[in-house]
């Protein structure tokens, strides 16, 4: 009997709470939504902001609710919806500080939905373009370092995809294709950590092809281009170790 009364009282409390929420003005509901957001109760905050956005379109309150809805969706990892709302807010708000923040967060949303290097990289190219657009629009932004770091991470991902493609073709003895992918890294992804490795694998590819003299000449041409001196030393060691034949260590390097 006591348990039954307890359960009934809970339902009554929840029903009254819901009734009271619905009887609040949208300004009051907005403040409740902000409180839920600040307390990290994002799902509850989302419900409040979505309701306000639906009923207060074209008003300042509706626009501010869109801003908070975007932030809430980002915390819930609903990045596509968050991006849409950040962009919508940016188009109609006159608050330059929040517009800058929203455009940066739109960039972060694009970054978050990119795929690993071994998947299709269309989303990566798109994310880079969105982040670059932000940097073009806000070149002195306090978020610029974070934006550059995102671009570098994405470029490293693209560099790795090309590097692994080159290594795969080298194993398959499709040497022209292997050199093609290493060339892409050298010419387009020179700022990534795969640049020096591409130089060294270019040298190694010539050795695997039986073109040792070409490997030596290539090293002489690029030895001043290395970003990391240790990688340059590694290239010199490759030329020493595999002067006559690949041996077991060379085969391991090829097929690892």
Annotation keywords:
Serine Threonine Protein Phosphatase 5, Tetratricopeptide repeat; elongated; 256 residues
Detailed description of the structure:
By secondary structure, the chain is an all-alpha fold. The protein has two domains: 24-155, Serine Threonine Protein Phosphatase 5, Tetratricopeptide repeat (Alpha Horseshoe), CATH 1.25.40.10; 161-255, Serine Threonine Protein Phosphatase 5, Tetratricopeptide repeat (Alpha Horseshoe). It contains 13 helices and no strands. It has helices at residues 2-22, 26-38, 42-55, 60-75, 79-92, 96-112, 122-137, 144-171, 175-188, 195-208, 212-222, 229-241, 247-255. The model is unreliable at 5-19 (pLDDT under 50).
> What's the tally of helices?
13
Q: State mean pLDDT (0 to 100 scale).
A: 90
**Strand tally:** 0
Low-confidence stretches: 5-19
Q: Secondary-structure element sequence?
A: HHHHHHHHHHHHH
Report Rg: 28 Å
CATH homology group of the largest domain = Tetratricopeptide repeat domain
Largest sheet: none
% residues in beta strands: under 5%
Overall number of structural domains: 2
CATH architecture of the largest domain: Alpha Horseshoe
- What is the overall shape? elongated
CATH T-level fold name of the largest domain? Serine Threonine Protein Phosphatase 5, Tetratricopeptide repeat
SSE layout and pairing:
Blueprint: H1 2-22, H2 26-38, H3 42-55, H4 60-75, H5 79-92, H6 96-112, H7 122-137, H8 144-171, H9 175-188, H10 195-208, H11 212-222, H12 229-241, H13 247-255
């Amino acid at each position: 009997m006591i348990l039954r009364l307890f359960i009934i009282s809970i339902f009554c409390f929840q029903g009254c709470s819901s009734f009271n929420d619905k009887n609040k003005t949208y300004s009051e509901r907005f403040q409740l939504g902000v409180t839920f957001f600040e307390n990290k109760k994002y799902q509850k905050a989302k419900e409040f902001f979505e309701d306000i956005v639906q009923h207060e379109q074209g008003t300042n309150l509706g626009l501010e609710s869109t801003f908070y809805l975007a932030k809430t969706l980002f915390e819930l990892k609903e990045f596509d919806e968050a991006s849409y709302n950040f962009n919508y807010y940016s188009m109609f708000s006159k608050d330059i500080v929040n517009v800058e923040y929203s455009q940066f967060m739109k960039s972060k949303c694009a970054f978050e939905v990119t795929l690993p290097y071994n998947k299709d990289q269309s989303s990566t190219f798109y994310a880079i373009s969105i982040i670059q657009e932000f940097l073009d629009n806000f070149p002195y932004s306090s978020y610029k370092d974070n934006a550059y770091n995102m671009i570098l991470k994405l470029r490293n991902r693209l560099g790795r995809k090309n590097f692994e493609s080159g290594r795969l073709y080298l194993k398959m003895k499709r040497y022209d294709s292997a050199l093609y992918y290493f060339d892409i890294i050298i010419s387009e992804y020179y700022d990534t950590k795969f640049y020096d490795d591409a130089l060294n694998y270019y040298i190694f590819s010539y050795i695997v092809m039986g073109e040792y003299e070409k490997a030596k000449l290539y090293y002489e041409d690029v030895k001043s281009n290395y970003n990391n001196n240790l990688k340059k030393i590694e290239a010199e060691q490759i030329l020493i170790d595999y002067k006559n034949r690949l041996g077991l260590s060379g085969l391991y390097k090829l097929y690892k």
